[in-house]
Specification:
Length: about 650
């Protein structure tokens, strides 16, 4: 959780000095009188959408193909609230003085039906529900005091309480996105043992836990998404990375967990992948950064269920493009988001994350869910208040999917919460006229938004054999290892290979123009020689040609080192043939002038067939001194 405190980030500069420190907390909340809501009540959300959810270009859609905009809030607590020092039993040693007991906040003060009614009054349709890996494995029941207002939950473990909350939310019409927020129950997000998905545990255990959670709720269609991990960031010694293939590779870990969830647990879930939150040491003169989703420009994810990917990013006014949010030790002179002008903020949001949704027909195109942003009701700073108005205006103007942090808190403790409750269950917060945030929230919730049917759009997806296999077709996987010992790539089911890079092992898949071109059944042909090149049909003289049999087209390829190893071909459902042309790309790019898909092999020469063509062959050379990677594609039109 990029939390709502200036001291949220344990300063990495202090970590470099082996000092772990946080900055002071924010201004304490003040009581606000209840009044008429500034946000209009909305109709019950049940019956307005049909699960499961999937994606079409930049939009999330329901099972009927209608736009489902995530208008969400974060109901935290189950991820833990202990700040890491002092007694776990003392509320003073928990974030904002709120001991969550490892369950969603507020269950000690308000009955679940009342909470859900207040959520509906906010206008939200979905809830991001954080949890910790520690919660999954805990066996100790929560104390009765943690569920005073919900005595039916007495004697249950935190996971069982989480079960009940999930069921209540989905039963009342809300979509639920499970969020693996922390490993331990310690409050996030600095140097706290929760920096990465595999801090204090193996990647295998982390993925196992995700399979467990996805299976646990697979029977509840209202559980629509798996938000894989929160705010991946640097620990004392090491940075996370996006694509280096080591133990700190967040790109690879997310790909692994997504694959296992979709193939072993629940193929209907959206997979939410957040960008990298922090790298480097926040010290003037040393490299440091918030990469967020920028790495996806050149290395994006392709899932086995190609229309289940949602990217995510977090933005708070006190953090910045190169600012960790720290104050005191570790505070740099980099601008915070709240220091930017409106135009600068908008450009930065686009550069860091929203380009993924705004730039259509790219290999990285996907919905972007800003799954955390927020501010305190007691905030008096002009810059911070202006930032909140600007960012909510951006979300309203760009029809952005969002989730406010946090949803529920205690009155007198956490004034960032949309809703706060005192010990008697009285409600305070953004539904009160006195809450200055209400005007911005109201505009965000009532601004024009795309609704109704969303047309299907062509898919464009990257294949990357940088560090191993990238076989994203379940039908191909069912046939076993089709080129043992080689790095193999195959397009997701429903797509065909349309582009290749010369030396980096990257490919591009699409279903443009023809849709799913593959015939029924799992027949496939692995081509390792020139037996299918017809007499008189030498389309790449002097080069080795792996050409598909007649009536077949390319969906995959393999390589051994830099050398092309095989082509993977499958039969088409419609007649193929037609004229062919050779697309050379060993010395420069050779793509259509209006080519979609984007730069799928950054820094490499690329070849790409036209939208109304299919790839039927790969040519390469083994001449001494020449690069043995793909040098040409045989592109043909159906007919």
């Amino acid at each position: 959780m990029t939390t709502h405190r200036l001291g949220k980030y344990l300063t990495l500069a202090a970590a470099a000095l082996l000092l772990l420190a946080t900055a002071p907390g924010a201004v304490a909340a003040t009581a606000e009188p209840a009044g008429e809501p500034t946000v209009p009540a909305v109709a019950h959300a049940a019956a307005t959408w049909q699960p499961p959810l999937s994606t079409r270009g930049r939009y999330i859609v329901d099972a009927a193909g209608n736009r489902f905009r995530l208008k969400s809030a974060n109901w935290d607590g189950a991820q833990g609230s202990w700040t890491g020092s002092g007694s776990t039993a003392d509320p003073a040693d928990h974030h904002a003085g709120q001991n969550s007991y490892g369950i969603p906040l507020g269950l000690d003060r308000v009955p679940l039906p009342q909470l859900l009614g207040d959520f509906h009054r906010l206008g939200i349709n979905s809830v991001r529900l954080p949890f910790s890996n520690e919660m999954i494995h805990g066996t100790t029941p929560v104390p009765d005091v943690a569920v005073t207002a919900n005595p039916q939950l007495r004697g249950r473990t935190p996971l069982q309480v989480y079960d009940a909350v999930v069921a209540a939310l989905t039963g009342d019409g809300f979509a639920v996105i499970l969020n693996n927020h922390t490993n331990t129950s310690r409050w996030c997000c600095g140097i706290d043992g929760n920096e990465r998905w595999n801090s204090g545990q193996s990647t295998q255990q982390w993925a196992d836990d995700w399979v467990f959670m996805a299976r646990r709720y697979a029977g509840d269609p209202g559980v629509v998404g798996a938000d894989l991990y929160n705010e991946v960031r640097r620990d004392v010694l090491d940075d996370p990375n996006w694509g280096q293939g080591d133990a700190h590779d967040w790109y690879a870990a997310a790909q692994l967990a997504a694959d296992r969830i979709l193939t072993e647990a629940d193929p209907d879930l959206l997979i939410v992948i957040e960008g990298i939150n922090w790298t480097g040491l926040p010290v003037d003169g040393l490299p440091h950064d918030r990469p967020t989703l920028a790495p996806a420009r050149t290395l994006s994810h392709t899932l086995v269920a190609a229309h289940k990917l949602v990217y995510s990013a977090h933005f708070y006014g006190y953090t910045g493009p190169h600012h960790s949010g720290a104050t005191g030790i570790g505070e740099t002179h980099d601008a915070r988001y709240q220091d930017l002008t409106r135009d600068q903020l908008y450009q930065t949001l686009d550069d860091e994350a929203l380009f993924v949704a705004e730039q259509g027909n790219q290999h990285f195109t996907a919905p972007v869910w800003v799954s955390e942003f927020g501010i305190g009701a007691g905030e008096t700073g002009a810059a911070a208040r202006t930032w909140f108005g600007n960012i909510t205006d951006y979300f309203a103007d760009h029809d952005t999917d969002f989730a406010y942090w946090p949803l529920v808190g205690w009155e007198g403790h956490d004034d960032w919460s949309l809703l706060r409750y005192d010990t008697a269950g009285n409600r305070y917060g953004i539904l009160d006229q006195a809450d200055w945030r209400g005007a911005a929230w109201n505009r965000l919730m009532t601004s024009p938004s795309r609704t109704g049917p969303v047309a299907t759009v062509p898919g464009w997806h990257m294949l990357a054999t940088d560090h191993g296999d990238y076989v994203q077709s379940l039908r191909v996987r069912a046939g076993g290892d089709w080129d043992p010992g080689a790095y193999k790539a195959a397009c997701p089911d429903g797509e065909r290979l349309t582009g290749l890079g010369h030396s980096g092992g990257r490919g591009l898949c699409t279903d443009v123009t023809t849709g799913d071109l593959r015939a029924a059944g799992n027949t496939q042909t692995v081509v390792t020689d020139e037996r299918y090149v017809p007499a008189g049909g030498d389309w790449a003289s002097g080069y080795t040609k792996f050409q598909c049999p007649e009536a077949n087209f390319l969906i995959g390829y393999s390589r051994r080192g830099g050398r092309t190893s095989a082509a993977l071909c499958v039969p088409a459902r419609i007649p193929l043939g037609g004229a062919g042309r050779t697309v050379w790309f060993d010395r420069s790019d050779n793509r259509p002038a209006d080519a979609a898909g984007g730069d799928f092999a950054y820094g490499d020469h690329k070849g790409q067939c036209a939208d109304d063509e299919y790839a039927a062959g790969i040519a390469f050379t083994t001449r001494l001194g020449a690069d043995p990677g793909p040098a040409a594609l045989l592109c043909r039109k159906p007919g």
